[in-house]
Amino acid sequence: MSNDHRNPPPPVIDAARVVSYAFVDDIPFCHPSSLFTDEALIAQVPRLAIAVGLGPQPGPLVFHCDEEWISLGISDADSIEQAKQAIERNYPGVSERWIDTHVTLEEALAYYDSETAGLKCSFCGKRPFEVEGLIEAPAATICRSCVEEFYGDFQFDGEEEVGN
Description:
The strands form four sheets. Strands 1, 2, 5, 6, 7 and 8 form a six-stranded antiparallel β-sheet that branches. The chain has a two-stranded antiparallel sheet with strand order 3-4. It is elongated. The protein is of the alpha+beta class. The chain has helices at residues 80-90, 105-115, 144-153; strands at residues 12-13, 16-23, 35-37, 40-42, 47-53, 60-65, 71-76, 99-100, 134-136, 141-143, 156-157, 160-161. Helix content is 20%, strand content 29%.
């Protein structure tokens, strides 16, 4: 397959900063996979990306992607090197194909913000990947943590009512 039609991944996939990627569509898939998503087995994929979460996700993530860098499945690893070694078992020879992106955290966050139209909680300023949920309204957006905090502020504190 010609490399002319192979575009690099975006700087961020599913709220994770891409640090390395490889095109594997022409490498024979040599190992049965145990990666399931939506009750379907993920086998050979054309693109792989190793990324680190923008938020509190532990360790690097391996994104098993289609030709457009849409994630079909995710596996994790203890380190980037361990992820590459595990992938080498499924795609022999991929170790020579890894391309480092050199995307900084600041660049990744700027890209993420552009893709999400700068969506953040209007009260604490956290991004969607930093919270458990957001409620959007025309004038403001609020995260679950702020809702819970404000709810607590309106509850009785002993004999004194807070918030009056």
